[in-house]
Amino acid sequence: QVQLVESGGGLVQAGGSLSLSCAASGRAFSTYYMGWFRQAPGKEREFVARITWGGAGTYYSDSVKGRFTISRDNAKNTVYLQMYSLKPEDTAVYYCAADQLGTGEYTYWGQGTQVTVSS
User: Fold this and answer.
1) In 8-106, which ranges are E strands?
2) What are 47's strand-pairing partners?
3) In what order do the strands lie in the sheet with 78-83?
4) Chain-centre distance of CA 15, in angstroms?
């Protein structure tokens, strides 16, 4: 069982920056692919970013590419999402998730953290 706990959400003005963290329990964190997703009110959850188990590979949705950076520290069992040049449309609950097998299927999810970008 893996527990994921996000933190770092909050209110920020458009153009500002925010950094999210996701702390994972368990010893196998370094073997998981990790992802960030978000869900805005009235919308479906959407993919934001993904990072391979070692951190060498990163992938982003077109909507955040060039503005967000995903990274991880396996020694701290933590994955990060650094967000720059935030826009009001980035407002959502952000979730981290663990893909144990690297297949794109995320088995474990955090509870989410709210990010609100004011215009």
Assistant:
1) 10-13, 18-24, 33-39, 46-51, 58-60, 68-73, 78-83, 92-99
2) 37
3) 4-7, 18-24, 78-83, 68-73
4) 19
- Of 114, 102, 111, nearest to 34 by C-alpha is 102
- Sign (positive/negative) of CA torsion 38, 52, 21, 23? positive
| Sequence letter at residue 54 | G
How many CA atoms does the CB half-sphere of 27 hold within 13 Å? 0
The alpha carbons of the chain give a radius of gyration, in whole angstroms, of 13
List the one residue out of 13, 114, 29 whose CA is nearest residue 73: 29
**Residue 90, phi then psi, degrees to nearest 5:** -80, -5
Confidence at residue 27, expressed as pLDDT on a 0 to 100 scale = 82
Instruction: Record the tokens describing residue 111, joined without a space.
Output: 């509870």
Percent of the chain exceeding pLDDT 90 equals 94
Size (the chain), residues: 119
